[in-house]
Amino acid sequence: MGSTSAENSGTGAAGNGSAQNTGHGENGTSGVGRRALIKRSAALGLVSVPAMSFLSACASGGGGDDDSGDNEGKTSESNPFGVKEGTKLDVVIFKGGYGDDYAKAWEAAFKKEWGVTSVHTGTQEITGKLQPRFNAGNPPDIVDDSGNQQIPIDVLAKNGQLLDLAEVLDAPSVDDPAKKVRDTLVPGTLDAGMQEGKVVALNYIYTVWGLWYSGKLFQEKGWEAPKTWDDFLAVCKDAKAQGIGGLAHQGKYPYYINVAIMDLIAKKGGLDAMKAIDNLEPDAFVGSDAATEAIEAVYEVVEKGYLMPGTNGLTHTESQTRWNQYKAAFITSGSWLENEQLKTTPEDFDMKFLPMPLLADSALPFEAIRAGSGEPFIIPSKAKNLPAAKEFMRRMLSKEWSTLFAKEANSLTILKDGVDPGVQLRPGTQSTVEASKAAGDNTFRYLYTEWYSEMNSAIENASNELMAKRIQPKEWLKRAQAAVDKQAKDPDSKKNRRD
User: Fold this and answer.
1) Which burial class, exposed, middle or buried, applies to 194 when counting CB atoms under 10 A from its CB (0-12, 13-18, 19+)?
2) Among 238, 314, 396, 492, which residue's CB has the most CB atoms within a 10 Å radius?
3) Is the whole model's pTM more than 0.85, yes or no?
């Protein structure tokens, strides 16, 4: 995704997308049981057989730490981590919707400032390229761990393979040394990177999730951006009558349709409905009126034939490109979408963001949006050049580097007022800025996607079946609740709680 969690993520975004904040005062943690975790890690190639020999090796501190002393320089007020001139920094960036030009700009600035040369890798194959390196105890120094092939943060954290970022966050801000780095960030944006009470991933990009449409197409068709679900369906109906799909979704990556499903649940039932899912409540889905209405609403789009033809079999970029060709009125995504689609979006497309329309009697207002931090950056605990990796991350949270990111990736970061006012944002991104201002405090953010990767996958799989009409809403609720109940049995899940 640009990130999505699917590309989280995109998390693609997605980046992972995911997704990934403003959560309010929650403690993060991994949610995979020890036995299940070892099995999953082995499947990913993150541990070798026998698994305990790997865990023992982690505890003994082997691998990439052997020559770390060669990378340690003298510390000072301006060099809090002791970056050593002439060393190398191994940087791996998920090359999704945001590209990797921004990272190359950072690396150039870092070399000029510190005399550190970066070894740069831009790729979408995060797991494929990095799992052997983590397994061998020879990981990169800093990683943008995002996309559909993201290595789950909870798995890495559980195996002790991620650095606690407290030292970076408590260091003096580059822009104002009187402040700690953490005090310069948008409130709540660190929550998504927490595992067992520690921030082990820096979700760097301020992301909003919701619906998207073409301002040009809507003007030509005389459609108004809908604020209610009934009005949304009316636009879809008229689009279908004119040979246009109502809703496109990235069928091969059901992460995206869960944007609609989960937004509807939160807006219908309020923050309590959202927290019930993150807190693994026995009625998070089955027995939840909000979840029931939300999934039935999304399924109505399927039943009435309002999906763009063929969308279930398309990747994210394939589906998004057809949407760019005016073959659908709406698409779900995060705010990496515009940058991800630069090459296929017509000049006059006029991309617009839209908060999820409301079901009847919703607890949250139309302006409420899912918003927070996405695109997790990590520093492996066995990174060879830890001083430079820490300083690189501290510089990421400076106005200079935040502005570089905005210029190259057309997106905002989690740094407060972190973008120079002179930076011209594209229409879609500008519309997310306006939507964020309109939302005010009415923002929400799920954390189960970061806390419980297996549960998240199970819910996505159920959504895939639903959109293909292989299951009905009642079965979706049953499968989603089963995923919650399974996760709740893991004792480690009790370490996560949203108040």
Assistant:
1) buried
2) 396
3) no
